[in-house]
């Protein structure tokens, strides 16, 4: 039992996370049902008096000392107040009422025998607990001290005959309470602070009792009752799976079931599907046929009149091929969805998982780190709900035998006010969430009391994650330093010693360059990357780990996602439809053999693979100067008033305020995510595939993984601009670099020469071409207006006017595309034909206006990169701001002033050409006017009719 508990105290030598909330103890979720219910938990039948949001607490092994210099420390945690307390009632009285109420329920359900160590515990504030009965504080049982170190809001002991019977066999390592779910057993109450706290319960072997805890006191009785009912049902149905008699029976042992799963995994064959290569070949046939018909026309005309100048049209062949590839690919895909095979969407292939893998049954499952980069999102309404979803998933995974931690990469904390930063730290401390916050962008030192620091990249997510991962790996390097070897070699290295060493090393690294950090920031075997507005299924980690463990060549397991709506606005619902449409098309393509995409979130990464493709760059670092002693103390200097030149004195001590002395050094930095490109996810996937790994798309979770979409038309346009900028950045250098470097980037050349299958390369190139097709639409349509308007009938027959192109796009995308989507979903048992068609065509007007009105914005992004002009994007808004009509109007005019100027200029030109010119030069007929009018109207309507704040007409 001692050896077992040593492994329990810290699986994989990781500091244990804090107590977190788990889902209800139910069997594994049915695959055909809702994989995850993210609604708030229902209140227990036994309603409790409301209590204030008590003070926050931190881990007993807090890695950060609050008394550090201005540059190297984070602000101390904020003590909570009690504004919500009932008038006329003291804080202690209110907590006493709640504790007595819970203890009354405990006695009512016969969960206590009155022995020492049994009762209810409630946290009032940091470091202060109330117990009922009061004798728990000094009854010698050590239960009160253990709960205090466990650092939970509410806890209760449960002692029944069933529990005593289950714990009578002292050899069992855990208690199986449901199929696939189990609860930990600790040897004594002193081991409670080191247990797997995400399970929210633990059996204490020495005392033959159960300890249950929860973040919400009103859920404590319900949680204990769920466990008690599960134990009773287990006893009634038969002996537990890990009972001593079962272990003697080879037909019922854990190893027997593990063998069944291993045998099933061995028999599984993942085939390579070639339908998508066939579709790509058909696309090329259509493209070349269309181009060939035009070339045939050129040859015929040259034969008739001998004018070889028409051969200049061949210069347009490559742009035509590139821009038209996606159009014909959509045409072939539509017919494939109508009459082709859709059964592969329910099967497993080399790059696609349509059904869940067999679950691992090992006792030591791999550790998973959930990495979440955040910026300045609201803690209560955006970040906290996401973290609650992640904590539920961790709880389930721990009850299945695994371990996990949450790693926050906070890019906004050091840019906030002290109050906002303290609120985040308090919340993270209370839930024992590891986090790293880098210094703000301060390359020239204009931000006072902050070190010199450069946040690289136009889209800061990559550099944020690189920085946090570097801090984590630096801590790991220090923990493997030779100074700890003698303890390991002499078997004198306990988990508590490692926790202490970890805290010391993290504090030392934090002191170096203005980093703020705390909690468990160590990286496990796998990394689940999520966004700040994500919801995950409560039972997703085991299946992901099982698939990654079984397929060692999979570096990225990308989960298909649903959409999490936060408003009921028509724009968000329209973008939700479009996002679901995109994921449906991706699943269809990948299940038929296309390469799986990596979208940068809701994906599991193999940490060893990411480390394998890391690269190093030399960067200027601003580091504090040390005094050279054994303690390596910081060299300090007085802070001087810039106006008077005199030292600034402390208001309390009267002594000069001091700050660390910094020096500039050049260091070789290891990076994982590309900071040079906007599309860091594409770069990561490409580098992994170049060294032999594969990216796989998992669709068996259904819509369990949910992501937020753009809430405003501003954010959606920014998203498209960023994608267009990133695509141009992947392929082309800015024009100023062409004379020295050539037009194509090394990344694109590596992509062309990579081992990615040729059909998938063509699919990716076709996707990239859509941005150039959209960006050039307004330019080509404007040119067509004058060419057809003034030279109609005199143009070469090789030229196709915009109206014919417009009509083709409407037929293929708006008509045939929606029909094919409805039929494919119907054939895949997703709704009825009538319902699908109604939904699809409902959103056609919105998408027509939006896609017709983004050409100018995309072309701006493309041009800005070609000209090396600065263009940056902030984080997408996660909360919708409701503004009155007349407050929204100035915002629209400011953001879209050049769009309105352009639309007004083109509209004025069309009116002048229709009425102001001589009769022979007037342009009034339908063919040239209609396409340009559609472009102008769409651009003008996008910020108006797609803006819920305007369309709500609130004054």
Automatic annotation (TrEMBL):
Residues 1-76 are annotated as: Disordered. Residues 26-41 have a biased composition (Basic and acidic residues). InterPro entries: DUF7928, Glyco_trans_2-like, Nucleotide-diphossugar_trans. The chain crosses the membrane at residues 272-291, 311-332, 764-791, 803-823, 843-864, 898-917, 929-946. Residues 94-236 form the DUF7928 domain. Gene3D superfamilies: Spore Coat Polysaccharide Biosynthesis Protein SpsA, Chain A. Keywords: Membrane, Transmembrane, Transmembrane helix. Residues 526-785 form the Glycosyltransferase 2-like domain. PANTHER family: CHROMOSOME 15, WHOLE GENOME SHOTGUN SEQUENCE, GLYCOSYLTRANSFERASE 2-LIKE DOMAIN-CONTAINING PROTEIN. This is Glycosyltransferase 2-like domain-containing protein. It comes from Paraphaeosphaeria minitans.
């Amino acid at each position: 039992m001692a050896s077992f508990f040593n492994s329990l105290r810290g699986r994989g030598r990781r500091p244990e996370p804090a107590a977190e909330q788990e889902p209800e103890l139910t069997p594994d979720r049915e695959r055909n049902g809702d994989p995850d219910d993210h609604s708030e938990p229902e209140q227990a039948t036994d309603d409790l008096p409301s209590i204030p949001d008590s003070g926050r607490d931190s881990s007993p092994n807090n890695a950060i000392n609050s008394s550090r210099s201005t540059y190297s420390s984070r602000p101390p945690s904020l003590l909570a107040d009690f504004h919500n307390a009932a008038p006329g009632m003291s804080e202690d009285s209110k907590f006493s009422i709640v504790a007595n109420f819970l203890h009354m329920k405990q006695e009512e359900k016969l969960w206590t025998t009155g022995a020492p160590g049994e009762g209810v515990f409630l946290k009032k504030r940091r470091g202060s607990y109330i117990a009922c009965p009061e004798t728990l504080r000094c009854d010698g049982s050590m239960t009160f001290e253990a709960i205090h170190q466990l650092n939970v809001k509410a806890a209760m002991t449960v002692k029944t005959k069933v529990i005593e019977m289950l714990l009578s066999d002292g050899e069992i390592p855990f208690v199986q309470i449901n199929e696939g779910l189990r609860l930990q057993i600790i040897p004594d109450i002193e081991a409670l602070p080191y247990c797997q706290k995400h399970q929210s319960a633990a059996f204490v072997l020495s005392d033959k009792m159960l300890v249950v805890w929860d973040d919400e006191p009103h859920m404590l009785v319900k949680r204990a009752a769920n466990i008690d009912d599960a134990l009773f049902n287990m006893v009634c149905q038969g002996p537990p799976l890990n009972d001593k008699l079962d272990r003697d029976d080879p037909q019922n042992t854990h190893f027997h079931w593990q063998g069944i799963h291993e045998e099933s995994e061995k028999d599984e064959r993942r085939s390579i599907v070639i339908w998508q290569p066939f579709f790509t070949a058909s696309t090329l046939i259509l493209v070349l046929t269309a181009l060939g018909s035009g070339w045939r026309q050129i040859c015929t005309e040259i034969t008739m009149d001998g004018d070889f100048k028409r051969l200049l049209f061949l210069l347009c062949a490559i742009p035509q091929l590139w821009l038209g590839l996606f159009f014909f690919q959509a045409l072939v895909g539509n017919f494939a969805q109508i009459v082709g095979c859709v059964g592969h969407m329910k099967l497993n292939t080399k790059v696609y998982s349509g059904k869940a893998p067999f679950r691992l049954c090992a006792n030591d499952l791999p550790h998973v780190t959930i990495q979440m980069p955040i910026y300045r999102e609201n803690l209560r309404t955006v970040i906290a709900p996401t973290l609650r979803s992640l904590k539920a998933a961790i709880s389930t995974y721990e009850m299945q035998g695994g371990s996990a931690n949450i790693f926050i990469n906070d890019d906004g904390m050091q840019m906030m006010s002290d109050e906002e930063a303290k609120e985040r730290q308090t919340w993270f401390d209370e839930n024992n969430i590891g986090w790293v916050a880098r210094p703000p962008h301060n390359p020239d030192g204009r931000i006072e009391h902050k070190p010199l620091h450069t946040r690289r990249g136009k889209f800061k997510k990559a550099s944020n994650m690189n920085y946090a991962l570097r801090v984590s790996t630096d801590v790991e390097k220090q923990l493997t330093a030779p100074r700890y070897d003698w303890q390991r070699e002499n078997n004198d290295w306990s988990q508590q010693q490692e926790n202490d060493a970890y805290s010391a090393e993290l504090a030392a690294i934090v002191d170096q360059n203005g980093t703020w950090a705390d909690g468990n920031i160590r990286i496990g075997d796998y990394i689940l990357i999520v966004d700040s507005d994500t919801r995950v299924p409560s039972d997703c980690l085991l299946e992901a780990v099982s698939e990654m463990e079984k397929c060692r060549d999979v570096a990225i397991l990308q989960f298909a996602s649903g959409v999490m709506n936060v408003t009921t606005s028509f724009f968000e619902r329209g973008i939700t439809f479009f996002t679901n449409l995109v994921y449906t098309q991706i699943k269809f393509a990948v299940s038929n053999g296309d390469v799986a995409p990596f979208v940068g979130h809701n994906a599991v990464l193999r940490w060893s693979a990411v480390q394998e493709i890391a690269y190093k760059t030399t960067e200027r670092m601003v580091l504090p100067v040390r005094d050279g002693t054994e303690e390596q103390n910081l060299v300090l200097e007085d802070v001087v008033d810039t106006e008077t030149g005199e030292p600034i004195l402390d208001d309390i001590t009267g002594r000069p305020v001091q700050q660390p002395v910094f020096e500039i050094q050049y260091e070789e930095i290891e990076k994982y995510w590309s900071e040079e490109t906007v599309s860091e996810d594409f770069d990561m996937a490409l580098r992994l595939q170049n060294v032999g790994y594969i990216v796989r798309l998992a669709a068996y979770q259904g819509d369990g993984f949910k992501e937020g979409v753009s809430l405003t038309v501003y954010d959606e346009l920014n998203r498209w601009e960023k994608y267009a900028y990133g695509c141009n950045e992947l392929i082309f250098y800015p024009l100023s670099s062409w004379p020295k470097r050539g037009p194509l980037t090394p990344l694109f050349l590596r992509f062309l020469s990579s081992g990615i299958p040729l059909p998938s390369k063509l699919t990716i190139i076709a996707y990239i071409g859509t941005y150039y097709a959209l960006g050039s639409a307004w330019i080509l349509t404007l040119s067509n207006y004058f060419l057809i308007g003034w030279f109609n009938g005199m143009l070469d027959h090789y030229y196709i006017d915009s109206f014919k192109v417009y009509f083709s796009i409407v037929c293929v995308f708006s008509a045939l595309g929606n029909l094919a989507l409805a039929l494919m979903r119907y054939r895949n048992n997703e709704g009825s034909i009538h319902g699908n068609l109604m939904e699809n065509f409902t959103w056609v007007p919105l998408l027509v206006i939006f896609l017709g009105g983004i050409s100018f914005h995309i072309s701006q992004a493309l041009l800005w990169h070609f000209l090396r002009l600065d263009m940056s994007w902030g984080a997408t808004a996660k909360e919708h701001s409701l503004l009155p009509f007349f407050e929204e109007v100035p915002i629209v005019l400011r953001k879209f002033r050049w769009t309105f100027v352009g639309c007004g200029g083109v509209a004025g030109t069309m009116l002048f050409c229709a009425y102001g010119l001589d009769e022979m030069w007037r342009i009034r007929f339908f063919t040239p006017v209609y396409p340009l009018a559609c472009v102008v109207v769409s651009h003008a309507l996008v910020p108006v009719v797609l803006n819920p704040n305007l369309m709500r007409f609130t004054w």
